[in-house]
Amino acid sequence: EAIEKGGYDHFMLKEIFEQPRSIADSMRGRVNSEEGTLQLGGLSDYMDKLAEAKRIIIVGCGTSWHAGLVAEYVFEELARIPVEVEYASEFRYRNPIINPDDFVIAISQSGETADTLAAIQLAKSKGATIFGVCNVVGSSIARETHAGAYTHAGPEIGVASTKAFTAQVTVLTQMAIAIAHKRGSITEELYQQLLLDLSAIPQKVGQVLKAADRIKEIAYIFTYARNFIYLGRGLNFPVALEGALKLKEISYIHAEGYPAAEMKHGPIALIDEDMPVVFIATKDSSYEKIVSNIQEVKARKGRVIAIVTEGDELIPNMVDFVIEVPETHDILIPLLSSIPLQLLSYYVAVMRGRNVDQPRNLAKSVTVE
Ligand code: AGP
């Protein structure tokens, strides 16, 4: 087992550090930024139909559902197709309205999650076209779908999903870019720029990982926190949900993720000097709004850890701790901003003596309801 962990203490840490490679693998043979092309072989037969799509429904559970929420923003922004994201477990039991011209994307690392499988069987019986975004080749969900794109992240052993999440987001982003290009909803110039920015992500993830020691120090300070709040806006809202889920599942600390603007509708009552608040506050279109959300928390003495864009000179002066991520195109930010949150939850859990790779009560794939 020590050999399989490749010198890391846990599979989870190894998988976090594998992300420059796993993200590159999820683009290999697909994105060619030098030639300015993007090909998703599995979807090529459907591209004409997808260009006319009226609606996309995304289903998944847990972290895969979070990847779906990121995809909702990206598809709507680039391809201008309405997207609904559903928990597979809710979708399958609420007599959903599914039309034969709907496209359903099922996201699943294992490809074996019972609720996700049942959701696609339901959608299929109503005539929808189903695509899979799975990591495990030949899995039940991969076989049940009409077509799809594998994430190619390699085996993920740690129960807490890390590299599978970033690979899912990378594949879904490629789908959105390809469909947007086909539909003509983005300019050729933006298309080329996105391919270049996407190709630069693995190297930028490598840069984020260099902050591991600093994140470890921050984790040490908050080891005994009883609660955590994660706040983000726009594309960083699903990142906040994912950061909170990661912390809960491996450290057993209660954590909640919220869209930052929702704070004043309730959660702000929780803020005091004992409440760590993680803001995902990169420089994007919601930057100024999130700066004022940080002020609201600091005014109530909350302790703030902020994920910011390299070179930010404002937020570091307002908060207790900052972790920088490199600049990228707005729609790619989750691929960078999610990484420090994985490391933060990992180090907190290790310092609390938790069984990081196999947390209590959890299974890697949930094959029963
Ligand atoms: C993530 O860290 C979880 N362990 C869990 O939420 C997981 O993402 C969920 O069970 C879905 O699994 P799948 O991607 O294999 O379908």
From TrEMBL:
Top-level taxon in the UniProt lineage: Bacteria
Q: Which GO terms describe its molecular function?
A: glutamine-fructose-6-phosphate transaminase (isomerizing) activity
User: What EC number(s) does this enzyme carry?
Assistant: 2.6.1.16
Q: Where does the record locate the signal sequence feature?
A: none
The chemistry this enzyme catalyses reads: D-fructose 6-phosphate + L-glutamine = D-glucosamine 6-phosphate + L-glutamate
Q: Where in the cell is it found?
A: Cytoplasm
What are the entry keywords?
Answer: Aminotransferase, Cytoplasm, Glutamine amidotransferase, Repeat, Transferase
* Name of the top EC class for this enzyme: transferase
**Major location, coarse class?**
cytoplasm
Tell me the active site: 364
SIS domain ranges (all copies): 46-186, 211-359
Indicate the quaternary assembly. Homodimer.
Summarizing the function annotation, the protein's role is: Catalyzes the first step in hexosamine metabolism, converting fructose-6P into glucosamine-6P using glutamine as a nitrogen source.
- Protein name per the record: Glutamine--fructose-6-phosphate aminotransferase [isomerizing]
Which species expresses this protein natively?
A: Runella salmonicolor
